[in-house]
Amino acid sequence: MLTFNFTPCPTLSTERLTLRPLTSADAPALFAMRADPEVMQYIPRPLATTVADAAALIEAMNEGMSRNELLNWGIARHTSDEIIGTIGFYRVQPENHRAEIGYLLHPSQQGQGLMQEAVAAALEYGFEVLQLHSVEGVIDPRNEASARVLLRAGFVQEGLFRQNGFWNGQFQDTAYYSLRCPASR
């Protein structure tokens, strides 16, 4: 079984991005994304209604990191400290050497390859530093942009669960993607 220590949260750097710990100062930017119906369209979570909602989410994620249950970064361009998205490992399973990757990006930043860059950095950290054996991506199958990000990163679709979740008065399908550590392929 793996042993994780997510405190302190590492900062990662790519060609254009910094993946860094979220702080309470990020609450307004996170609120702007979590309150946006376009951003949250395929994420079965309620829209944030106040900046305090976003601040509480940041606090909850940071508490989860202190318990080594998840690892979450804010995504910022090198040219600004304001976050434009988030990415992280959730549903961490130390006994299975596995975690789920999740991410979101502000609509104004989409279509520029930024999430692909962030995913590559997170996966490198997950496989090389955390020693994960595999990472899963769990998405709404209607989210074609997210599916493209996963496929470009080397994930393969492992399954489609039909109407396995209930959200906003409707049953929802869930697509499961998986990527094994390059060293174990």
Automatic annotation (TrEMBL):
InterPro entries, A to Z: Acyl_CoA_acyltransferase, GNAT_dom, Ribosomal_N-acetyltransferase
Organism taxonomic ancestry: Bacteria, Pseudomonadati, Bacteroidota, Cytophagia, Cytophagales
Pfam families, alphabetized: Acetyltransf_3 (PF13302)
Lineage: superkingdom: Bacteria
GO molecular function: protein N-terminal-serine acetyltransferase activity; protein-N-terminal-alanine acetyltransferase activity
Protein name: GNAT family N-acetyltransferase
Domain (N-acetyltransferase) ranges: 17-182
GO cellular component, one term: cytoplasm
